Amino acid sequence: MSDDIDAWLERNNAYLAAALAHLRELLRAAIGPAAVPSQTIGTTALTEPARVGDAGAVNWVNRNPFRRRSPANAVPQVLLLPSAESMDATGVVAAAERLAEASQGDPPPALLMLAERLGLSAFERDILLLCLAAELDPGIQESFAAVQGSQGRTNPSFALAMTLFDHAAWDALSPERPLRYWRLVDVNQPGATPLTGAALRIDERIANFAKGLNHLDSRVAALIEPMPAESATLAPSHLLRVAEIERLALAAVPGRIALVGPDRESKRRLAAAVAAALGLPCYRLSAEAIPTGAELDSFLRLWTRESLLLPFALHIDAHDLPSGAEQGLRRLVRRAGGPVFVDLRDGISGLEIDGRVDIAKPSAAEQRVEWGARIGEVSDKDALAARLSSHFDLNFADIAAVAREAGAGEESEPLGERLWRGSITRARPSLAQLAQRIEVKPSCRDIVLPDAEMALLDQIAGQVHGRAVVYDDWGFRACMNRGLGVSALFAGDSGTGKTMAAEALADRLGLDLYRIDLSAVVSKYIGETEKNLRDVFDAAEAGGAILFFDEADALFGKRSDVKDSHDRYANIEIDYLLQRMEAFAGLAILATNMKSALDPAFVRRLRFIVNFPYPGQPERRRIWEHAFPSKVPLRAVDFDRLAQLDLTGGNIHGVAINAAFMAAAAGTPVTMELLLDACRIELRKLDRPVNEADFRRIRAVPGERR
């Protein structure tokens, strides 16, 4: 391959040398031999061929389905000559013969290849050669000035081209013709200068192409980035998608394919793998970087020109498409000059595509196999892989990153704990914008509930732990599309321990607990609330997080009769929640003190309903015992008598904290008198009567605890 490239570069250099020699003969014929320098081109670009490893060198013999090739029997293109009467027949004809000989070969020289790909006429190609000559041989500019009748006009112009070439055509000056449409030359037309006399300069990208250096235009390269192919890290189901997408791209050139789904990283890797299968490099363009206004048209022309000069595949990352960017995306895709893969979270109407492929994350079984391959040789590898794949929904890139980070962690910590913690943290950045992570404290283990309710919490934890066995080993996942998650409703009065129970479950399962921030999720704009909820559920599934909907009746309320558009869109939000809750594969907890306000459809989809009753006297005593940390000094505190006060767990904790502050201010331990004063404050806060007779019955007893 290296020899082929070197041979082509030598032929291309020989062609350029012959073309410039022919141009000199035309200039001599126009102004006389003495006015034209006789030296050859003095640039190393034409005498030292670029190597494969050189920056900018291109493999021109690359065989890919989008490379435009001339038929084998095509007649090589050569520069057209003026009539015999207007030139020195001996010198010009001899130069033309050498040029015709240098034009032979396949692939053809770069300038002829460029003319073919961009649709240049013979005259337009000759204009381009004039501008290229000024770059390659500065000495020839004196001859340009002599022909144009002014020493100051050393740049070529349309008038110079019309003087030298009898096959001149006025349409070459049109802004709709390839020469100006593709911005192959810059036209410097100051003031009242006529277009024919305007100074012309070849575009740097085009000049390098003619020399045999094919690289991305810097104006395009600034907006895109290369994407290396990583097909070895694709899931088996995704490898099947590679073949499907490749068939679609080949069946409808240029091949505009929409890749739709929630897993952005897998779609990127798929696009790069398909491009590699087509023999093309792949570049990524963020939808946020697509220019707007007048700059968009300029970018579209440059990008389409690049796709013709340097075939490549483009991956447009529109997964999180900015508001108002749809029109620019449609225009960009419509004018695609090569394979285009559009990364979408959902479809977009009006997008001109040749095919759509839905991309899901690797299945739980594929993730389990990948975990096993990444974990290495440990005694409990199979069990650990099953546990990780059942709790977390990660793509192969995330699995590889977690395994790599865990391998570099503290050796004293078990590998399973490092992998578990790394998997949890993968989704934290996505959830942090729409939900609040609750730091679970060890005190949550002291939750006090009746035996029946504690048994339900045990069942919830057991179902989360046992998902790998039931869903995967026993085959339930294969016959279920929905309902793979665990959803529970915690219903009870305020202060009865609903939030604390959620914290206790998170502590027991070793998972993050996120309280949904309604102010960040609910939006007045149509469709934004559903989008925010979708992002929350997707991130929670990936990181195995527990979603906690406090005051759930605000989101999961009953649907109402449609009287206006507000009712209709509110019902749509509830309908979306119904569907997404059922499809959620993790643990979701709804807490409310208004169970009757929930839509019945939600209640039907819940797997558990845990009622949090008002605590009785035995439960209140246990709550009082756990209300004070071990370091709090207590004096003469009787928990049995305190339990006689009709308070919830939340009220009891409030009383304990207030009494502790009162004791700290007084410089004494916490006493019954201080606790009773704090109880009076709590009851007044609740607008409940303070019965002093009840307080007189609660007398201080001897005893002290530290």
Automatic annotation (TrEMBL):
A Pfam family it matches: WHD
Residue ranges constituting the AAA+ ATPase domain according to the UniProt record: 484-616
Record family assignment: Belongs to the AAA ATPase family.
Protein name, UniProt field: ATP-binding protein
Keywords recorded for this protein, A-Z: ATP-binding, Nucleotide-binding
Membrane-spanning segments: none
Xref: InterPro entries: 26S_Proteasome_ATPase, AAA+_ATPase, ATPase_AAA_core, P-loop_NTPase, WHD
A Gene Ontology molecular function term of the record: ATP binding
Lineage: Bacteria, Pseudomonadati, Pseudomonadota, Alphaproteobacteria, Sphingomonadales
Highest taxon in the source lineage: Bacteria
